[in-house]
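Hi everyone, sorry if this is the wrong subforum. Our group has a chain we'd like a structural model of before ordering constructs, and none of us has done structure prediction before. Sequence below.
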Amino acid sequence: MTSGEPKPRPPRKRTRRDLDAVFGEVLPETTSDERDDDTRAQDNDSWYHENRPPHHDR
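Answer:
Right subforum, don't worry. Here is the predicted structure as tokens:
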């Protein structure tokens, strides 16, 4: 290295925010089963009752 060349800077530490800005959020911080969703708070059988075929009412 000669006296006229600038010293190379040390590599900058990459943060999660930096990586997300470039690549997007690949993996979320929490999974869907760890989050409080309003749909999970409903009765587990409610979807089946709402989508019950008419011939099952006989």
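For your construct planning: The longest helix spans residues 16-23. The CA atoms of residues 29 and 53 lie 39 Å apart.
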